[in-house]
Structure formats: C-alpha cells, structure tokens
Write a structure and sequence with these properties.
Layout: H1 8-35, H2 46-77, H3 84-106, H4 120-143, H5 148-164, H6 174-209, H7 213-234, H8 247-257, H9 260-277, H10 284-309, H11 311-317, H12 321-350, H13 358-392, H14 397-402, H15 405-430, H16 433-444
Helix pairs in contact: 1-2, 1-3, 1-15, 2-3, 2-4, 2-12, 3-4, 4-5, 5-6, 6-7, 6-9, 6-10, 6-12, 7-8, 7-9, 9-10, 10-12, 10-13, 12-13, 13-15
C-alpha cells in the first residue's frame, strides 16, 4: 500500500461484505418461500423479503464501488485522498441510512416503486452522501495526476448520482412514472455502472498483469464508447410496455441488441491483456475473479439480456422467470464479481499481508460461478415453460406455478451453494494462514 488514506477503503469493504451476506440470506429466504410458501408468511411476507434482498444488493454494490474508488484513486492520481475524515463520515451516514431503510421495510414503511422503495428522507440522505463522495474524489483527482481510468470512473460516478435524482419524481401517471423510473434503473445498470465496471477492471488489469497503460486505455475507450452508444437508446426496449410511441420498439430493440458488444469487448480485453502480459502476479485469485467477471458479465448481461430484448420476444417473456434469470446472472457477473475481484486484490494489500488463502478464494469463485450458472439455467427453463403454459396455452398463473416447482427447488439449492461460496471467499480474506489452509484442504477433498 503506497498511500495511507487508502485505508479508508477497508471500512467500505467491511460494510459491503456485511450487506452482501444479508442480501444472500434474504435471497435464500425468498427462494425458500417459493418452495415452502408459508415460511414466515406473517412475520416476513414475500414482498418484504424480496424488497430487502434487492435493496441490499444495490446498497452493497454502491458501497463496494465507493470502497474500490477510495482504494484505486490515490494510486491513479498519485496523491492522498482530499479528506479521509469526510470519507469516514460519509460511510457511517450511508450505513445508517441503509439500516433505517431496511427497518422501515420490515414495518411496511416504504414507497411502492421497485428498487426505489426508500422513503423520501432516506433518498435525501443518499443524495447528501453522494455529494460528499463526489466532492471528495473530484478534488482528489483535480490535485493529482489525471488518467483515463480516473476520468472514466468519475464520469460514471457522476452519472450515477445525476440519474438517481429521477427517483424523486413520482408522477401519478403510471406510464410517465415508468418512463422516468427506467432513467434510474436502466441508465444505472446498462449505462453509467458499465463505465465504473470497465474502469475498475482496467485498474486490475494494469496492477495484476503489468500491461502498458496506453494499451489498456485504448481498450477502455472502445468499451465505454460501445456501452454509451448502445445503453442510452437501449432504454427504449422497456418502453414497449408503458404506452410510449411505437417507434421505441424498433429503437429499443436495435440498440439493446448492441449492448452485447461492450461486454464481449470486456472479455476480449481481459483475456488478451492477461495473455499478452504473461506475468505471474502473486495474487492469482484476484486475477481469476477478474477474468471470471468479464465472462459472467458477457453471459448474464450480454447473452441473457439479448434473449429478452427484442420486442416480439419480450411480448411473451416480459415478467416471467426469464427476466429473473437475466437479472440474477447480469448483476452477479457484472457488478458483484467486480467488487469481489477488487476485494480479492485490495484487502491483502490493505491488511499488509500476502494473499496466502488463494486456493480457498479460487474454490469460492468456481463454486459461486457454477451455482449462479445452474440457477440461471433453472430459471431460464422455468421461464420457457411459463411462456408455453401461461402466455401461449392460457393456463392460470397459479396452475403454471405448480408445474415449475422443480426449477424453484433447484434455485433454492444453488442459492445455498452461493452462500457457502460467499463464506469461503470471506474466509479467504480474513482467516489466519494456517486455518485457511485447513479449510481449503477440506473443501478440496472429494465427498465420501
């Protein structure tokens, strides 16, 4: 670790890991309710469980982005953070706001907009936190070295904050509400978040592979150009359902099919950089997480996104388990894995220790990726069956759901393996060397 203020990132990583575990636990609980519907039916109804699951996902990803930024920015800008004390205050404000929001959900205090259920006062708090964060990192960049990585990262983070402002506009007209709702949801995950992802991945490729910065920057410009070109107008593929003019079907379908391009570019970028470097960095676990991130993002956000995106196809698949399949693998591959990759690289550096638990971390990566892939396939087959029975044959929703039980049991089982893999990953970061080696040996032993 070169700069003392990078230590601030550790606080964010601790918070992100805690919320990551909470998100998975509520996800497993939601999957349990699918197969055993009366589970906590009075205390924790499904709509509240799902709300906590999705909101914990968004909050911990944002916290991970902030921690990653606070770690990489001093190295990229070659200067200390402008104000580490402001970063610490910002963390506690963000964590308290998230905790208050979750407690509010449990007592049915929330707005009715999916992903944006936070009460008005919590949204105000989030904006204050975002302004503190942007003020701190912008002044850090302005007083230090400017690089393509930091410029694109700042652009993505400012875009994240700006588009969140549409969360405050909640018109009575449902079509208008959904139009601006997608300004937040789509332009986050299929727009500015992709810039953040690409920037962090580029930083990791430079550090892990030692590739020349100019080469990385050229790839980075291609990736973010494709992301913005396809992602902005690709928003139109959601407008098919909200009463917008018919031309949005064609604009949305065309440009959203192109959204596969930036994710394919990320795969090519990460593997070409790794092969070209031929460098054996001591932290091979972080490299594996980085490479796996690009691959899983390509399949989740790229391939499975393409499966749903054309309006004539989406006419049948909209709101089915095919949507859930795409959502789970896209969020996991693109954003969960880039945060885990950054933690795998940065935490040993921040704790001033060698990455000694790599077998455990690599095993966690493989188990998590396989479990999420099987989960996605099960939801995909469930969605196809749902389209066949409900949308084409005209069976009722509940009769259709009864015939999807096998797929829901598979999702429940794979969710358990994701939880195990997450605990293994956390153990790889924080367990003492000897204990981590024993755990890795047990995991590696064949059953029986």
């Amino acid at each position: 670790m070169k700069y003392q203020t990078q230590k601030v990132a550790m606080l964010y990583f601790y918070g992100a890991i805690g919320l990551f575990l909470a998100q998975i636990l509520f996800g497993v609980l939601a999957a349990t309710i699918y197969v055993l519907p009366n589970t906590f039916s009075v205390v924790l109804p499904f709509n509240i469980v799902r709300m906590v699951h999705t909101n914990a996902l968004v909050v911990w990803l944002l916290m991970g982005f902030m921690g990653s930024t606070y770690y990489l920015l001093p190295e990229e800008a070659e200067t200390e953070l402008f104000s580490p004390k402001l970063a610490i205050l910002q963390f506690w404000m963000f964590l308290i706001a998230a905790a208050v929001a979750v407690v509010g959900y449990l007592f049915h205090i929330h707005e009715g907009r999916e992903f944006l259920e936070q009460p008005f006062i919590i949204k105000v708090g989030i904006v204050v936190v975002a302004l503190m964060f942007l003020f701190n990192i912008t002044l850090t960049v302005l007083k230090g070295r400017k690089t393509t990585v930091t410029n694109i990262l700042l652009f993505g983070l400012w875009g994240l904050a700006v588009f969140f402002l549409f969360a405050f506009y909640n018109p009575a007209n449902l079509a208008l509400d959904k139009m601006y709702w997608w300004y937040v949801i789509h332009l986050w995950v299929e727009g500015v978040w992709e810039l953040i992802l690409a920037s962090i991945l580029a930083f990791l490729m430079i550090k892990l592979n030692g590739v020349d910065r100019e080469v990385v920057e050229k790839w980075l410009y291609v990736i973010i150009g494709l992301a913005l070109f396809s992602g902005i107008l690709g928003t139109g593929h959601h407008y098919y359902w909200i009463g917008a003019p018919g031309y949005w079907q064609w604009i949305g379908s065309l440009f959203s099919t192109l959204e596969i391009a930036p994710f394919f570019s990320m795969v090519a970028f990460s593997f070409v950089m790794t092969k070209k470097a031929g460098r054996k960095h001591p932290n091979q676990a972080a490299l594996l997480w980085s490479l796996a991130c690009s691959v899983m993002a390509f399949f989740g956000a790229g391939i499975w996104g393409f499966l749903n995106t054309l309006a004539p196809v989406n006419y049948y698949t909209h709101g089915t388990q095919l949507t859930a399949a795409h959502g789970h693998l896209a969020f996991f591959g693109a954003y969960v894995m880039i945060n885990l990759a950054m933690m795998a690289y940065a935490v040993p550096e921040l704790l001033n220790r060698m990455p000694t638990h790599q077998t455990l971390s690599k095993a966690a990566c493989w188990i998590m990726c396989i479990a999420m892939s099987v989960m996605t396939l099960s939801l995909t087959f469930a969605g196809i069956k749902q389209v066949e029975l409900q949308r084409i044959a005209g069976e009722s929703f509940m009769d259709t759901q009864d015939q999807l039980a096998l797929f829901y049991w598979i999702r429940f089982g794979t969710g358990f393996f994701v939880l195990v893999a997450a605990l293994m990953f956390i153990g790889s970061l924080f367990l003492p060397k000897r204990r981590a080696a024993v755990v890795a040996q047990v995991v590696a032993q064949p059953a029986g």
